[in-house]
Amino acid sequence: MEIDREDGRTPNQLRPLACSRNILHRPHGSASWSQGDTKVLAAVYGPKAGTKKNENAEKACFEVIWKPKTGQIGKVEKEYEMIMKRTIQSICVLTVNPNTTTSVIIQVVHDDGSLLPCAINAACAALVDAGIPMKHLAVAICCCLADNGYVVLDPNKLEEKKMSAFAYLVFPNTTLSVLPEGSSVADGEPVEHGIITSVTHGVMSVDDYFLCVENGCAAAASLSAFFRKNFQQSQRDSSKAG
Amino acid sequence: MGTEVSTSPTSLIDQTVVPGDVVLDLSNMTNQTIKLGSGLFQDNDAISAMRAGKLRYTKPNKYWVESSHKRYIPRPEDAVLGIVVDSKSDNFWVDIKGPQLALLPVLAFEGGTRRNIPKFEVGTLLYVRVVKTNTGMNPELSCTDASGKAAGFGPLKDGFMFETSTGLSRMLLSSPTCPVLEALGKKLSFETAFGLNGRVWVHAAAPRVVIIVANALMNSETLSGTQQRIMVEKLLEKISE
């Protein structure tokens, strides 16, 4: 039994994605990521010398500044900043540039549902544009649970309000490898099936949560493929001279 | 589940890689010394990419990821353009667009002794060579080449400095000479200094020559050889009216 979504998508279908990098002049890396109508701009400055107080000087430090579209900065924005900081810290290689600070600034251009995953994707693209060393990319997706138990991916704002629970999930990207298959495993599962961050709202059962994770993982693979293709195309456009 | 790659690619050399791609498997290559350049890091037996770019290989054993960014990662024996931000009794603090400020010892000049220490004001542009880069320490610079001669290093007077990406600097420094520089050099006379950290200095007798050269260089990043020549011709035509 399929659910009817207002814009005619199937439950597992994502909205149209668009990503462009190196769009701002002053930051060292910048990217804009849009999923349907939700659009987020990310800018990266750094690495710059010196860490903040109370931060480990043997590792690189990250700071995230979240700027909402309208209104003052409040608890919601601070929470997003903390989630993003922890996500970025786990995907970046912290030992390469010790005692430096990298700032990531997120500007919400339009919010139409699935805002935090869109912001995480934009920040990841901006970090790649700035050349910050990373272990792998982070691919984020929002999965929500409808009343009749179905999992719906990438909701827009109206759908998010109607759902009983939703989860933002962040996975590592699918990587190309010259290793023979099956060797990049950790505890019997390929690295891509791991999970970096998970934020949930509402009430859902454990089985439903695992169902969300499964569906999200499959969608993450198509998001990584999009990112890789987007990057390859921009490389091709800019290196015709080579 | 998902889209697993059914046959792992045998080699990713000269292909675009994104962070996380495993590019080399060390368990197959025993008894070989491999040199890893920028953008690669070692995770036990697998070498994976840290940055997104093209994987390059030169014989006998050098691998690196080529990418162009606005910031610079200091490497020894690179010639860069730095700006003095502070001067202390032993060192000058120089900004080279890297993660840390770099140190230029006060005696690292040809014939430098305690009696003839150069006085650089804050904001002086210097053409320097990177000597040492250790993780966690500030990079060290020198105004002499490896044998102690000046070889063109030192302060750059007059002229105009602008910032570009590291990829453009590498292209302008490549040999044989870049087409845009050849085409400009046939008609105009000017002096340039390119730093591998993305800074370019241009000097000429007339300001309009400086402006033409600077604009031509800034536009040539994404153009192919013939496109660069056409662009330079159009610029020069407009000017000589």
From TrEMBL, chain A:
InterPro entries: ExoRNase_PH_dom1, ExoRNase_PH_dom2_sf, PNPase/RNase_PH_dom_sf, Ribosomal_Su5_D2-typ_SF, RNase_PH. Its main location: nucleus. It holds the Pfam family RNase_PH. GO terms for molecular function: exonuclease activity. SUPFAM superfamilies: Ribonuclease PH domain 2-like (SSF55666), Ribosomal protein S5 domain 2-like (SSF54211). Keywords: Exonuclease, Exosome, Hydrolase, Nuclease, Nucleus, rRNA processing. It is found in: Nucleus. Residues 13-133 form the Exoribonuclease phosphorolytic domain. Belongs to the RNase PH family. This is Exosome complex exonuclease RRP46 homolog. It comes from Camelina sativa.
From TrEMBL, chain B:
SUPFAM superfamilies: Eukaryotic type KH-domain (KH-domain type I), Nucleic acid-binding proteins, Ribosomal L27 protein-like. Residues 34-71 form the Exosome complex exonuclease Rrp40 N-terminal domain. Gene3D superfamilies: 2.40.50.100, K Homology domain, type 1, Nucleic acid-binding proteins. Its main location: cytoplasm. The keyword Phosphoprotein does not apply. It is found in: Cytoplasm; Nucleus, Nucleolus. Keywords: Cytoplasm, Exosome, Nucleus, RNA-binding, rRNA processing. The keyword Nucleus applies. Pfam families: KH_6, Rrp40_N, RRP40_S1. It comes from the Eukaryota. Residues 159-207 form the K Homology domain. Belongs to the RRP40 family. This is Ribosomal RNA-processing protein 40. It comes from Camelina sativa (False flax). The gene is LOC104703065.
